[in-house]
Amino acid sequence: MDSIELLQKLTEAHGVSGYEGPIKKIVEEYFKSIGKIHKDQIGSLIVEKNGSEKSPR
After folding, report:
1. 42 alpha carbon, distance to own chain's centre
2. Measured between alpha carbons, how far is 12 from 26 in angstroms, rounded to an integer?
3. What is the C-alpha separation between 21 and 37, in angstroms, rounded?
4. Nearest-5° angle of CA 38, CA 41, CA 30?
5. 43 with 28: CB under 8 angstroms?
6. Which neighbouring-strand residues pair with 37?
7. What is the rounded CA–CA span in Å between residue 3 and residue 16?
8. What residue ranges do the domains of the chain occupy?
9. Which of 23, 28, 46, 49 could disulfide-pair with 15, CB 3.0 to 4.6 Å?
């Protein structure tokens, strides 16, 4: 999925405050190939992407 397709899916999905489930699924699907996905205690998505450098930033 490219950026334009992602934007189209996000703008067409239902995701009113407190009921962001459909949006969360789209975001998870997009980012699962980029990095490791974590969810915190309140349901926020955190994507961890490893860099290509061996030293820390």
Report:
1. 15
2. 11
3. 15
4. 30
5. no
6. 47
7. 22
8. 3-48
9. 23
Task: Tell me the one-letter amino acid at 20.
Answer: E
Residue positions counted in the chain: 57
Concatenate the DSSP letters of all residues of 2-55 into one string.
-HHHHHHHHHHS---TT--HHHHHHHHHHHTTTSEEEE-TT--EEEE---S-SS
Is 13 in contact with 22 (CB distance < 8 Å)?
yes
Give the position of tokens 């992407």: 49
pTM: 0.73
For 51, the token pair is 């860099």
Q: Residue-wise pLDDT tens for the chain (57 aa)?
A: 888 999 999 999 998 888 889 999 999 999 988 889 999 998 889 999 887 888 776
